[in-house]
Structure formats: structure tokens, C-alpha cells
Amino acid sequence: MELIKAQKGTQDILPGQSENWQVVEDVMRSEAAMHGFQEIRTPVFEDTRLFQRSVGETTDVVQKEMYTFQDKGGRSITLRPEGTAGVVRALLEHALYNNGLPVKLHYFTTCYRYENTQAGRLREFHQFGVEMFGSNSPSADAEVIGLAKGVFDRLGIKNLRLEINSIGCPTCRAEFHKALKAYFAQYKDQLCETCQGRLERNPMRILDCKSPICSEIAEGAPKILDYLCDDCKAHFESVQRYLTAVGTEFTVNPTIVRGLDYYTNTVFEFISGDLGAQSTLCGGGRYNGLVEEMGGQPLAGLGFAMGIERLMMVMNKQNIEMPEPDRCEIFIASLGEAAHVEAFKLADCLRKYSIIAACDENDRGLKAQMKYADKIGAKYSMVLGDDEIASQKAVLKNMKTGEKKEIDLSKNFVEQYVCLSTEQEDFTF
Predict the structure, then answer these.
(1) Are strands 280-286 and 301-307 parallel, antiparallel or unpaired?
(2) 203, exposed or middle or buried, with CB in 10 Å at 0-12, 13-18, 19+?
(3) What letter would DSSP give residue 17?
(4) What distance in Å separates the CA atoms of residue 400 and residue 332, rounded to the nearest whole number?
(5) How far is CA 159 from CA 152, 275, 323, in A?
(6) Contact assessment for residue 336 and residue 362, using Cβ atoms and an 8 Å cutoff
(7) Residue 88 CB: number of other CB atoms within 10 A?
(8) What's the rounded Cα separation, in Å, for the pair 202 and 183?
(9) Domains of the chain by start residue, with CATH
(10) What is the pLDDT of residues 188-227, one digit of tens each?
């Protein structure tokens, strides 16, 4: 029978890897909590219109990459390609803004995009994201950027650079769009088919095209910073002042526009020198018109998404040491049914005190049990048989040093184990 394998663009996160993911996720949760962000969890699929309206009809995500299907009720359903739209929907549906502003939310999510797979680009991928609603202050922009930087700093990630830009508001962007249309119209026949369609509808999307020809043409295009209105210019300058005030280094990159239509004003990316072509480790920005576009009252918003797979790739390349995962503390081997019942009871008792314990579950011989104990990295072992049950005495063995200590099964077993193991660890580990 043919072995069924994981789908292209997906991957398994195996034991030994998942523990590292947990460490990273714990850092992310901790950093988010320090900034007052609460966790939210949204459905993996949504009404297709949610992403058409928020992400934008002219984006590659909507045009080419979404996993969309009809459910049994004839409704168009899409697996989420990004996290922000679902959070905005939840914000409005549950009126989270009534709990006071700003609303600060963070999430861990899986996203789905039908893309050409390569290192750092999968069809199912994981993101850590944050969203803040109800503040238009430039300090909010700096705080969100600082949260992302805090994650990287705590994980010990090096060789990163922060690039920022402002893509203005709808008012000043209208003039910018006119200038872009005039510029790209000169090269219309050279643009890819997708960008030829974007020329009239949303010329700014051409700046984000991955086609080598379009990218080369875009290098000479007008720059948004030259078209910012006074308010947008003042906001962007203030964001830079806040970043400078806390010692966050950055570079202004006027070519950053991000790949989703909902962005306004500040956009930013953390770029890694260890990712090759897929160099963006984290990206985000402000989206002041999105809540209104989704049917709510005007409410400022901003946030970012951080790709966890890419983050793990960088950490591996930089040889960042991860803490050893928790291993089995004690393996209780048994010979015979009565001994196995006693081993099962003792293991259960230890676990109630948060001590990782294991016993045989495969009716193996003693040699095979001890081999298994060594394989799972047990620090200590103990063998129970008829003699041990009768005498209520057993031997606790340090698996690393071979040192042995007698333990009385008739007294407080957990207390004895803790005392004996602590004594041994004082001079063996």
C-alpha cells in the first residue's frame, strides 16, 4: 500500500523541534504581555468577502494565492491567508472597543497561501501577530515596532535591520497614484500581465511585484515620501523621533509598500541577512481605514506579523542555543503484574507533584526496559519486582553516574525521591 505523505508546502514539526517552537512562542507571549496585548484566537476559515474587502482585490494574495472553496451550503469560504482581517472581524462582531481604547491583541495563527514553495515560503505557515486599535499616536507605531524588536533581542537574533516608510493617507496617496500611473504608462508593454491590470486600478501594487522586469522598472518610479501631506509627514517624523528616543536604529526605505492594500502611513520590515531572497522576518504597519472598510466606525489600527518558520531558520543559521527540553526524571521498571501496578501508582503519584515519571507500558523484559529508560534520557531508574514489593525497599539509580541509594516504598515516596535526587544532583549535575 502506498505511503501517504504530507502535502507540498506543508511540514511536520516533530518532537525535538516542537520544544524549540514552544520556547520561542513563550518569549513572544511574554513580550506581548509586557506591552499589554491579550491573546485572541480566530477561525481558520472565513467568508471569502472578508479577505477580498480587507486584503484587496488587486493583491497577489487575493488574485493568485487564496485557498477558496464552496461549502455544502453554497457559501464561498477561504482559509485565512493572513491574520489581521479575522481579528478586525472579531473586534467588530464582539464590540471589543467597548472595553476601552486602545484594544491590544496578539495571536498565533496558521495561514494558507498557494505559493511556489521554497526555503522560508510554505503554503501552510505559522505567524505571531499583534494588532492595536484606537490609537493614532506615533508612539503607538514605535511601541509595536519595539515589541517586535523585543522578541528578536530576547531570542538573541543578530544581523537584523529595521526599514521603515510612510505610504501616506488616501488624500496624499491620490496624487502619488497619478504620478505612478504617468510613470508606469511609459513602460506598459514591458510590465507583466498582472501589473498591466494593476496600472489603472492600483499602480502602487506594481512596486510590490516580484517580476524582475517590473522590479527593475519600479526602481525609477516616483517616491511616496515626496507626496506626503503635512499631517502624514509630521506623523512619520514623529515616529522616527520615538524610535530614536529609545535607541532603535532604523533606515528609511521609500520602496516599502507591503503586499496588502489596507496599509496607511507607517509601514516597516525587519530584514534578516541570513534568509537569502526571502529576507523579511517581520512586517507590518498602520491601517487606519480598515475598520471602517469592514463596516465599523472609523478606528485607527496598526500591527505586524512575524513568520515563525523563517524565525526558526534564522536561529538555526545563527546557532542560537535553545534550552534542553524537559526529560524524564525517573523510569520505574517492573517485573510481574503486582510490581507493574505498584510502578504505575508511584509514577502517577510523582506526576501529581510535577515530576516527569514513566513506567513500562509494553510488557518488556528488564533489559529492554532499561534500554528504553536510557533512550528517553531518564535521570534515574528504579526496578520493582516481587522482592521489592515484599520488603517495601527499592534502589534508586543515577543513570549517569551509576550511584545507588535505597528508598523506602512504605514511607513518603515522593519526599524521599526529591531528597535523594537533590543530594545526588548537588555533586553530579
Answers:
(1) antiparallel
(2) buried
(3) T
(4) 16
(5) 10, 11, 22
(6) no
(7) 28
(8) 13
(9) 18-169+229-317 (3.30.930.10), 330-419 (3.40.50.800)
(10) 999 998 898 888 888 888 887 878 999 899 999 999 999 9
